[in-house]
């Protein structure tokens, strides 16, 4: 390019130098862009990598096999703990003295008797027989099996003493310990025992909260956007409203929590920790986002559509509901889903209204006490038990899965209904 | 579309109004509610879970709001919209009792449930170091006395304070001022340590000003506020063998294979030392019960009976597994008696 034979005004030496510089600048810009994308992807890989590598073990849980003789009298007295313990002592040859036996009691999860009881209640004909049952092991046994508790340190520094480790080795040797898929994680509410803790309570809490949020913020948000965009006169008042809506979208979420505390709990006297209140607060938080996204979508519908509709005699309301709104719907839905996804990931406003709490029972209604998935993550991250570390990461993965699902839905809807002019 | 949308909106509004009215009317409660200290939270939740598993009552809801915030909610009044139990990592203050009384919460039962020890821990890879409150104060105070005058803390390394201490930078990771652990740390380490340094008394004559000078922690990087999450401090300590961390006993108990603790004034942190009152960095933990709610909210008596039972707070109770340091037998019995009789608190 720079080999210019005829020296015209546009192919002088200076011109070639300038051209080279411009190309160089172009290349630098592209490289900078690629580096930026590279760094961002690397960060994402590191983040996801650390979460997944820490959390994938939480989807497995150690179980212990026991040959339980369901003695009639013991069952009637609901003494399932003793039944399980006798079965365990029979399996471990060293279980002869009292101290050893007391140590061995910690091998089984404190939830194991309830598991057995549920099994017997479901099938009463088991009473009097000897059954092979697999029951959950205590979280420390589970952690030991996963290699998170080291055996090469002195006994006093271990959570598991030598007696327990010897018993585990004996159980492993005769195939009485197995690792299975951790269904509890998906079917139980919160617990202070890691092996009994599950995310279901938080998932249901989040779902109830989001339903309230959606029922309130979507109709109100779309109605407000349509009115402001299509019908409202342009004057100082509507300008003021517009400025306020834009400001509200940037207000820190904790402020909405404080508002919820003062108005919904203080003034209306609604119960603490209820998904109803959480949903109301989240609705206030997502309203501005939905209004702004909907207005942008409405604005993107070409004026010719409106003019044509009005031209053939449609009323302004018909123009909006028959023509403008359907065309703007993909954009509105995208905005709404992204707003909802943000609400799903919020904890700060929930802190104020009491949804950051230890709640075991799975909520059954809008006024039952409930918590939310991000809150559950926060609480597990704060627990001293080691086994909660992996469960924290697992809960993060579950939250991410929901977020990806919601954002994927937004992309799908946009692609499916989008129209270009 | 138009009429459909309108109908949907109307239905939503009606549903919400109904839910509002329903919730506002549903002012009776069949579930115990507890609020308060994040230090007591792990213990109260463990009791709540065991109590719920008993099957007779719903599992209580426990919120972690901090001691001060919890007592404020607790003292706001009598009635189902107010909590029944408050967790506290310090004793209730006179002002708070007065606040309670002003709002109609006349009778409160105080139960001491056990102790928490504050660990001064560091990585196993570091050489063993023992500390005294005096040294800690010198390492962490904002101003320290040098030649009879208070000057900005000149100590950069532990060996600057005492040549016998390791030659490494002072770096202590601890809780932020909003935490109850920090309050206790200020009181037990900063104030007590300061009292043992005679020069401070000479340098600052006024008692109030001296107390303030004692409790002010340096801000030049020697003390790092590591947030409320104690697990984070544990992780940072394993990554950085030169740093010390301040947190509750239960986190040390769970991480014994990675961490060691410094002896404080010659005493090792152990449940026995705390129980005997020898380890200075320990504090009693309390729960407070609203007497007016007993018999109104179902299960309160049974809940505190579970809390004070031997299988929970006893020597080998499940709260011990969670990191609570149990009280001597006489005190446990006393707690049990107050729990049965709901003995009102008198300050």
TrEMBL record, chain A:
CDD domains: TM_PBP2. GO terms for cellular component: plasma membrane. Coiled coil: none annotated. PROSITE patterns: ABC_TM1 (PS50928). One of its GO terms (biological process) is phosphate ion transmembrane transport. It comes from the Bacteria. Its main location: membrane. Residues 203-410 form the ABC transmembrane type-1 domain. It is found in: Cell inner membrane; Cell membrane. Keywords: Cell membrane, Membrane, Transmembrane, Transmembrane helix, Transport. The chain crosses the membrane at residues 29-52, 199-228, 248-270, 276-298, 350-373, 393-413. It is a multi-pass membrane protein. One of its GO terms (molecular function) is phosphate transmembrane transporter activity. Pfam families: BPD_transp_1, DUF3333. NCBIfam families: 3a0107s02c. Belongs to the binding-protein-dependent transport system permease family. CysTW subfamily. PANTHER family: PHOSPHATE TRANSPORT SYSTEM PERMEASE PROTEIN PSTA, PHOSPHATE TRANSPORT SYSTEM PERMEASE PROTEIN PSTA-RELATED. This is Phosphate transport system permease protein PstA. The lineage of its organism: Bacteria, Pseudomonadati, Pseudomonadota, Alphaproteobacteria, Rhodospirillales.
From TrEMBL, chain B:
Pfam families: PBP_like_2. The keyword Nucleus does not apply. PANTHER family: PERIPLASMIC PHOSPHATE BINDING COMPONENT OF PHOSPHATE ABC TRANSPORTER, PHOSPHATE-BINDING PROTEIN PSTS. This is Phosphate ABC transporter substrate-binding protein (PhoT family). Residues 1-26 form the signal peptide. Residues 22-310 form the PBP domain. Gene3D superfamilies: Periplasmic binding protein-like II (3.40.190.10).
